Task: structure prediction
Amino acid sequence: MALDTNDKTPKEFRIINESFIEKFKKILRRYLYPIYLSTMKGFINKKFGHLKKIGVGEIFLGYRGTDYEALRKRVNRIKTIKHSTILIIGVGTGRDLESWLQYEPKKIIAVDYFNYTRAWKLRKEYFNKKYKTEIIFLQADITDLKKIENKSIDIVGSDAVFEHVKRFDEAIEELTRVLKKNGILYANFGPLWHSWGGDHISGTDNFINAYNHLRLNKKNYSDYLETFGEYSFHEQDGRTWIKNDMFSYLKPKEYLDIIEKNGLIRKYTSCVIDKRTLKYQNLHPNTYNELVSKFGENNLLITGMTIIYANQ
Result:
């Protein structure tokens, strides 16, 4: 299938400098979250430790501790980012690029299935004034990265992408091909399809609708999506991924199995339980139990995952 080469950059797109409030929040997250996570660890493992059977090493209740700064720091402990060549997949308009650039990699190749030429041009102009890293933007399908040489990448990185990869097994084969020996594959992804709001839109209107993508038949689901009004392409609109058939529909363990089938070595895995899932379970136990019987509780509980694997 040919890629759509039309520029998808939103009309309102512009470079926004980080606010003082956001900088302050980062400081709080850096020092307070480790304390919070330490106090919660025992409770989480006691209540949800059974999830580790699928292959996750750490469990987060809520998103504290899974911010980009914490995740980049974790990657850097396993593989030094400085002077590395990084392939970022699903870069979108590039809003997360700076979290990598701050570590001074040698080169970043940033890839997306869609074309965001105007945004990429503005990002490159802005970052070239702040960093020495070489930055290349490409439109490509990650199952076919022919412009990238074998064993040329130190770190493959992605955030909120794997849940959108339709041919996930082919994608992992291709990402393994471009990784150097001892290079690493990092991905943080979700919400997963079977979780709360797994279609990236159900429940954003009303809490009770959070599992409409699982509960409704095809026609009723289509009618539900129409209630959100006129649609136009936007990476923040969940209908973009639905209308372009860009969900993997995989369950948590299936992601891990496919990655490990390609010979990659597990260095770190974790999962996130969205607190809204537990709230839904308490408020609507009958509906939740029906979903459990169809899809399995682990698949409903696990909203997101973080994985780091090394190439042999």
Summary: Residues 33-310 form a domain with the Rossmann fold fold (CATH 3.40.50.150). The chain has a mean pLDDT of 96. The chain has twelve helices and eight strands. Residues 20-48 form the longest helix (29 residues).
